[in-house]
Amino acid sequence: MRSDLRDIETTGSTQKQVAARASRREFLLGSAGVLGSFVALSLSNAHLAFGDSAAGMVTVVRFSDAGERLQAVETLKIVKSDAEWRKQLTANEFDIARRADTEMAFTGKYWNVHDTGIYRCICCNNALFDSKTKFESGTGWPSFYAPIAKENVRELRDESFGMTRTAVACTECEAHLGHVFNDGPRPTGLRYCMNSASLRFVRKG
């Protein structure tokens, strides 16, 4: 009788262990599925926010390499295929400017540059920022309190990676530049946190 009871207890314990393993397995598989969906959604959001859109006319302000404001012009937005952009850009520049990746802090070539000049788009040469508005933010990315002209950049809602941020793109070619935050210095109170890989610096003089 006692042997039968031990057999029943052992069988019951084994069944509980099997059920527990199954529950853990289901939990892990479910978690992996949720994580996979989250990553896929994040990448999808990034692509939707920063991918090339249909061609159209845009207005930008032209600047000389000396930073002199020339004139506002209406021009055809630059749209290229991924293959065309890959031929023009390095792998890192493509990932950041065309696929909304982000360079690691303190690794970009312009985060600690204090020379006088202007910053142009690495993709289309559109003037984006003047060194006069650059400041040391301590973040490890080149930071500016204002664009060289409001027409030359556009802001996009970025909901990738479970966050809601304001991304900044080049008006002329929609290259991803970085993000803008409300913790900058006067007079704007803004911090345009940019990726060096999306920029080309032209020194003045």
Description:
- It is a single chain.
- This protein has one domain: Beta Complex (Metal Binding Protein, Guanine Nucleotide Exchange Factor, Chain A), CATH 2.170.150.20.
- It is built from three helices and eleven strands.
- The strands form three sheets. The chain has a six-stranded antiparallel beta sheet with strand order 5-6-10-9-8-7. Strands 4-3-11 form a three-stranded antiparallel beta sheet, with no helix packed on it. It has a two-stranded antiparallel sheet with strand order 1-2.
- 30% of the residues are buried.
Short account of what is shown:
The chain has helices at residues 2-50, 82-88, 91-98; strands at residues 57-63, 69-76, 117-121, 127-130, 134-135, 143-144, 153-158, 165-170, 176-181, 191-194, 199-203.
> Rg, please?
25 Å
CATH architecture: Beta Complex
Alpha-carbon distance between the two ends: 100 Å
- Number of separate strands: 11
Proportion of strand residues: 25-35%
Note the main attributes of this structure.
single chain; 205 residues; alpha+beta; Metal Binding Protein, Guanine Nucleotide Exchange Factor, Chain A; three-stranded antiparallel beta sheet; 31% helix; globular
